[in-house]
Fold each of these.
Amino acid sequence: MHTDRLLPGADLWGTSDDPLECVALRPGVRFERRESAVTLTFDRPWQALSSAVLGGGRGPVRSVLNLHVPASYAGTNPEADLRRATRLLRLREPVVGLMTAVRLDETQRVEATVAGRRVWSIVTVGVGNATRAGTATRAWASTGTRPGPGTINAIILSEARLRDAAAMELAMIVTEAKAAAMVESGLRTAVGDRVSGTSTDAVAIVWPSTASPHVRHAGAATELGDIVAAMMSAAIRSSVAMRTVQASGADRDTDG
């Protein structure tokens, strides 16, 4: 399989689409990274709460897909493109599917342990489309611009079984931590507002269907919520710092 078969006109930065990284996170849960996609696959159905393009909402999941698309991607039906990629990658359904233009070797995967149960964050950060919630549409109207490529995708995988309220709290925590880190980054919109994220950010919270006991709450006052927030903040800061260094290098090359 090759990347250009997943999406027509894909922005190839390699030719082979063989797995570059394969990790068994725990029995029955596998993480794989290709040039074209990051996937999580489950031997048995897990549960997910997400804002994903494909399979968003609350329900069972057998695979999670973060599909790489070129910066020039302007698909009119991203859900159909994700379904096509799902078939080509032979992923088990139901699938929760997201998209990113970030190079997938920049995927940040972090593991922590809370009360004897592990939690993983799998995050890709693109800030080319950075915006401020509540001002984005007015900013685009005033500048005559439309959002370009750039999105922040966060997948949180909990080994502990979550009640729906706890899953919702983790989605809130991820969003709060992302917004705080983006504001602190100093990045600004075209009209000078401090940014809080991008206009296409997505989050997926995933947990086992059968485990005991339930986690009732996972807000900011809990150890699980606190650790997930720290994971998200660190991912944002690391990515913004890396892009600042890259931009500085490009400026020096231009000056030279």
Note: Residues 1-5, 8-15, 251-256 have pLDDT under 50 and may be disordered.
Amino acid sequence: MAATKKNTRSAKGGAKTTPARKRRAPASEIAGLVLLVLGIYLFISVVMESSGIVGDAVKGVLRGLFGLTAYVAPLGLVALGGALIMRGSAQRKKAGLLGYVLVVWSLFCLFGLFFTARLDRSTYMSFLVDAYTLGQDALLGAGAFAAVLLYPALTYLGTVGSFLLFATIVLVVCIIKFRLSLRKTGEGIKEAGERIVQNTGRIVEEHRQVRVAQRVARARQDLFIEDVAAHPNAAAPDVDLIQPTVFDSAAVLAPTAGEGPDLFYEPRAGGGDAAQLALFSLAGT
């Protein structure tokens, strides 16, 4: 009886959880749709010169908050809305969402480091106000959004330390999120570099062999033309004018007759005066 009651309760509990999950899915999709439309509207407001009273006001606020990165910030809302629509409930994605926000915030801070010389660093509030004004008026920097983290980082770590801090945050979150391994990544980069070097060397060697082959082909042809011009009544020699053989090791051209690194041009026997040996040495090429 006790087991039956437990099974009945678990069955009832299971029956109760299923509708709850079904109710949460449309809510997340609606939230995703709202964020998607909002991101698109904010992006259009920033890009277009005139987008109505509301759009112009939003544009000024976005520029003050994000500076030059105001063109990128609305796209984050678009990506977040699309993720909610595609993946459903965001209850189990809070850690991943926090990681994305931290990466984007750190990237904005890295960009804002290049404009900190224009900001008043005497107090926290003056730093935020200057960052907001610089972004709103001149569309420079990363706005007050990045200044929230930039001021304490610059105060305690300096410019170089702040750069290392935010770069490390981006790297660590990416390693955790995408399950990267620095050792495997380094090995992959090393292997890719070795392949690039090998392929580059092979291509260079092939081009060098082609140039040598073309040079030898022209030399063989010149020898043939000179011999025919000097002995017009002699029989035409047997000579390969077009396709010399190239060894891969030392790019040495195999002679038509004889052996060694020299190219021999030997007319056909019985050619009278044309039966002279014309020798073209590749030692100087």
Note: The beta strands are 245-246, 253-254, 262-265, 278-281.
Amino acid sequence: MSTSTIKLIKHNTLNETLETAKTLTETLPQDFLFTTVLPTIKGLVEDEIRNQYTPLRETQNVLINETASIQVEMNDIKENLKNTISVYFENVHLKKRLSNLTKILSFKNLLPGWNGEGTEGISEKLTNIALDFINLPILKYQPSVFPTGRASIQFEYQKSSGDYLEIEIFEDHITLFSEIDDVVTEKEYLTIHEILGDINAFHARR
């Protein structure tokens, strides 16, 4: 309860008491008034204030408790929502990874000439390299996966802005091509660590 509310209760009660005391001073002896009447009036004022204050204080305590309870429930809801979103994205990532693994395994069936004359096949060694890359626990972003006629497997990332990142995996090396903000970049003979850094940097751009 606010200080202003308590002051208002005291003020109203005191006014009523003073009106009563004014009448008494006109009819009672002064000694009796100071020794008996005024102490009694003081006690009545205190009781009245206490009687009016206690229900308000109890109501305030109830509101405080209910607010605390609501806050706990809100925190629980936020935590549950956070966990639900996390599980959702983990499931989406897992589904994409499984889809990519299935695609890459199917590339083993691509023999020379699979996409026209001069097209090279996809070797088991190459598919295993690609499978290991897709299965990396630290690969946060699953790519779109395609076979090429150059005996390689291509991983692609593309944003709605048009920014594009391409990783091409060969049996003996890895290359990178990107076009970001109309700036073309090409790299060759990259390590897995370097490739992961480029993928993360690509997705970190806003």
Note: Strands lie at 144-147, 153-158, 164-169, 174-180, 183-187.
